[in-house]
Design a protein that fits this description.
With 238 residues, the protein is α+β, with helices and mostly antiparallel strands. The protein has 7 helices and 12 strands. It has one domain. Strand 8 and strand 9 form a beta hairpin. Helix 2 packs antiparallel against helix 4. InterPro entries: DUF5701.
């Protein structure tokens, strides 16, 4: 028997949005401001801004200045097509409530991490995560690390001076860039652990929808790599 899907309130804004709601397709020619605006729009249209209790106009005005923190491009990923310039991350969200916004077409995302366990996933020692909205910069979804044990993938990522992604960052990535969750190129989120077991959170595809779950630290999977980033950027006055 599989792990049951965590139940969410059917009236959540991430559930009740129109079936057509989805992140607008990524434009590789867009500049930082245009891409940030696209991601903000995705959060509004998929109901995430409403989860935060924010008016869409105020939400846009608060987040648009993050474009000012953009830095220079990072090194190319090990595998062509694994790169994401940046992801807007919004701290303080209940991941199970956000999960439906991880849409693949009209199919809502799900989580199999229960509500008691989800808050216990914390950043690894040495991983500094801002408490305010930020840009996760220079993301690599890490398909080169498919079939590599998570503990070994973590050593590879940190050895390159990069940071693994947290569970919150992985969900954000799939919400704003659903095209990057691809068959046989899904990803673990190595920066988040419970501290009480060997579970490593991950996002993959199951029954044609995005699923937030976990795998064991020492178990490799041919379809599961490990995502990483170059940096986390915040505004100086945040």
């Amino acid at each position: 028997m599989g792990v049951p899907v965590t139940v969410v309130d059917p009236q959540l804004p991430t559930v009740t949005g129109p079936p057509s709601a989805a992140a607008t397709a990524f434009d590789p020619t867009a500049d930082v401001r245009a891409e940030l605006d696209r991601q903000i729009t995705a959060y509004v249209e998929l109901g995430v801004a409403t989860l935060l209790g924010e008016d869409p106009a105020a939400f846009r005005a608060r987040l648009a200045p993050l474009a000012e923190v953009a830095t220079t491009p990072t090194a190319p990923p090990a595998v062509e097509g694994d790169d994401v310039p940046f992801v807007l991350v919004l701290p303080g969200l209940d991941l199970n409530d956000v999960a439906p916004a991880m849409r693949r077409g009209t199919r809502l995302g799900v989580s199999v991490i229960d509500r008691d366990e989800a808050p216990t996933y914390r950043p690894l020692p040495g991983v500094e995560v801002p408490a305010v909205p930020y840009l996760l910069w220079g993301v690599d979804t890490g398909s080169e690390l498919c079939n590599v044990r998570p503990e070994d993938a973590l050593a590879t990522i940190t050895g390159r001076g990069r940071t693994p992604l947290t569970i919150d960052e992985g969900v954000a990535l799939v919400v704003v860039r659903p095209d990057m969750l691809r068959p046989n190129k899904c990803f673990s989120l190595l920066a988040s652990r419970t501290g009480t077991n060997q579970r490593v959170p991950a996002v993959w595809i199951s029954e044609r929808r995005a699923k937030l779950g976990w795998c064991w630290d020492r178990n490799p999977h041919t379809w599961l790599g490990a995502a990483s980033a170059a940096d986390r950027l915040v505004r100086a006055d945040a």
